[in-house]
Amino acid sequence: MDHVIETRDLTVYYNRHRGIVDVNLTVEKGEVFGFLGPNGAGKTTTQRVLLDVIRPTKGQAFIFGKDCQKEGGAIRQRIGYLPGELSLYADMKAQEFFEMVDALWGNQGDKAYRDSLCERLNLDAGRKIREFSRGNKQKVGVVAAFMHKPDLLILDEPTSGLDPLVQQSVLDMVREAKANGRTVFFSSHILSEVQAVCDRVGIIREGQLVATQRIEDLVRQQFERVRLDFTTMPPADAFALDGVTEVSRDERGVLLEIRGNLNAVLTTSVTYHVTGIKTETVSLEDIFLAYYGRKNGGNHV
Questions:
Q1: Can you state the angle between helices 134-146 and 111-120, rounded to 10 degrees?
Q2: CATH 3.30.70: which residues of the chain?
Q3: Does the structural domain 223-282 have CATH classification 1.20.120?
Q4: CB–CB of 34/185 below 8 Å?
Q5: What CATH class is the domain 3-78+150-219?
Q6: What is the pTM of this model?
Q7: Whose C-alpha in 147, 199, 203, 252 is 20 to 30 A from the C-alpha of 190?
Q8: Quick one: pLDDT at residue 117?
Q9: What pLDDT does residue 299 have?
Q10: How far apart are CA 158 and CA 295, in angstroms?
Q11: Residue 182: HSE in the Cβ half-sphere, 13 Å Cα cutoff
């Protein structure tokens, strides 16, 4: 496969403060790659290095096979970027802002396509940006990122501040970019969005990439959480079974995570006079949170 993005031991420190540490990831041509992590995990720092806004303390970053530090200008000509913290010129009309962005691209934009994006997102490009709500300002950023049909889209929380219908329109635009062979680096904390549009995800925690997996593999890891209450509490090792993890216990019962072997759990629970059983299927969000909570993470491809 062709690597559109590749990082090698990418590390950034802000004086003594950690940004990212030894991040190694690849994003392939034509895929939507989800980049996930809690606030402060290093998502924005990684994106800024890719765009050569900041320089790494060590390591390298490449886009389209070009070194981001040495050929940043040429790389950015092929990227559509939507930052998480969007800054716009308040006294410009949206249309004027788009024309300025187009000029930076060498006036190669397709105005008809740009207008179609505005119509699709219900954005009045003839109004001044200072008159816009937060959601409409976000639409300006979305149109500016997509309007040149770039080879690579780097989108940081692209649906932030948008109403649900417009959110779906943006996700449709991401799907269409992929269908047209373009690549999307998609940072979001809304896990339903990630599951809906991404092929693979990288999970970053405390500046380190702790896992890289295909979405369908993560979904297959979904497990059940079972709460068992007892009249007689079982010993600490009662549920030391394959595929079973004891999460917690109190004076009344235990909470288990089960990835198979439910029959063995139920057989064991009867021995200790179970009085109540409550089950729930764990969501994709809980799977991510399980990664966040690990003390030692490993990469999975």
A1: 150
A2: 223-282
A3: no
A4: no
A5: alpha beta
A6: 0.80
A7: 147
A8: 97
A9: 39
A10: 30
A11: 21
Q: Is 301 exposed, middle or buried (0-12, 13-18, 19+ CB in 10 A)?
A: exposed
H/E segment holding residue 24: strand 17-28
How many whole angstroms separate alpha carbon 276 and alpha carbon 185?
A: 45
Domain with CATH 3.40.50.300 in the chain: 3-78+150-219
3 state SS of 218: helix
One-letter identity of residue 163: D
* Per-residue pLDDT, 104: 85
CA–CA distance, 17 with 190 (Å, rounded to integer): 27
* Predicted pLDDT of residue 296: 42
Blockwise average pLDDT, block size 10, the chain, 301 residues: 90 93 96 89 93 96 96 93 91 95 84 96 96 96 96 95 95 97 91 89 90 81 85 90 89 88 88 89 66 47 32
Cα–Cα distance measured from residue 291 to residue 138, given in angstroms and rounded to the nearest whole number: 30
Strand ranges of the sheet holding 152-156, from the earlier edge strand across to the other edge: 79-82, 152-156, 183-187, 32-36, 200-205, 208-214
Predicted local distance difference test score (pLDDT) of residue 284: 65
For tokens 């990082």, the residue is 7
- Return the SS3 of 280: strand
